[in-house]
Amino acid sequence: MRTIKKLSTLLLAAAVLLSCNQKSNTVTSQKEYSKYLEIKDNKSRDFVQSEIDFWQKKFDAAPNQISYLSLLASNYSKLFENTGKVKYLYKAEELLLKSNEAYNYSVVGTIRSLGRNYISQHRFKEALVLANKALAIGEGMKETQKLLFDINMELGSYSQAEQNLKAINDSSDFDYLIRISKWNDHLGDLKTAISLMEKAKYIAILNENKHLQVWTFSNLGDLNGHAGNIKKSYDYYLKTLELEPNNSYALKGIAWISFSHERNTVEAKRIIENISKRHHTPDFYLLKAQIAEYENNTVAKNEYLTAYFQMLDSIDYGAMYNKYNILVYADDKSTASKALEIAKKEIAHRPTPDSYDLLAWSYYNLGDSKKALEIAKKYVVGKSFEPKLNYHLATIYKANNKQAKIVPIKKELLNSMYELGPNLEQKISNL
């Protein structure tokens, strides 16, 4: 009788301990963010649409006023950001092309706007041509150098990016601060990256610029998550939503916290289901597939991946989802050759360590570990601090029996489990 009572006491203590551990792991609160999931209207989108209607009427009445085209394009770009519908990005491009053609590519602001549109479309080399065209004209040099920094970072031209960063050096300038923050993140110095983004945040607050506050809050949500400051990350996503209740990026960030940190797949799925109704983009299917994989639901995972590719087939996203396609195809031996084909194309227009990693990963999944190692050593090792790249690198090292090189990488990977997600936990432990 005493033995049974003792066992019951132990079981109760274990249950209490488990409950405490689950609570200590919880940073989100449904009471705080659920109201943002239930919003029916979208004031930001409606305002942008009203601006489009206004400027379209103005242009229809005075088609010789070319400046109206840029104003229309700017609002279509905002509509793309708000809804995720790529047709609005293409509409902005169409308007900017008309505007640049009318000006004979002589107005630097309009040239830069088209360059930024091409960045969003992942047409980086075309964006570079436009930025250099603006640079040659010579007006607004600082703004053009900011654009060049952004493009060079995307192209992996880091020495040129650094030169442009030095050219715009001004610690009181918001645009400089967010770029030097990105530069430090690229160097693997997250602490400095966060500190610089905090300075940019204060400038945005001081200037009462809601758009820039939303931008910095959401980015601080990301950066703090990468640094393992999960509660801070969550708080910044909430701050983003307070200013912009329909911000799908912040809600997706909270969904990731629910999934990766709290391991609450039910709540993560609830958040994703709600936001994907308002901001319907292919990447939500990939997130759902990740969660299904964690739940060992292979049928659901395959259904979500099928839905993802069906959406890509029905809507032309250009090169915007190449990276995701490579990762999905590479993880399946039957489609790994497709991954290799896309990876080669990606290198042709974006020769970054990230792209070369995808090429190496494709070769590894095709069974050519030696070729994978050769590419990784030449183009990836020491050139990026991204956890996913390091996971691929460690896996390739293991396939080539280079265990000594795995040890320091594995330590870093274990510290990056939140960013990598729970599906890689066992794989990393087995390295």
From TrEMBL:
SUPFAM superfamilies: TPR-like
Matching InterPro entries: TPR-like_helical_dom_sf, TPR_rpt
Residues in the signal sequence: 1-24
Highest taxon above the source species: Bacteria
Per-repeat ranges for TPR: 214-247
Protein name: Tetratricopeptide repeat protein
Organism placement in taxonomy: Bacteria, Pseudomonadati, Bacteroidota, Flavobacteriia, Flavobacteriales
Gene3D superfamilies the UniProt entry points to: Tetratricopeptide repeat domain
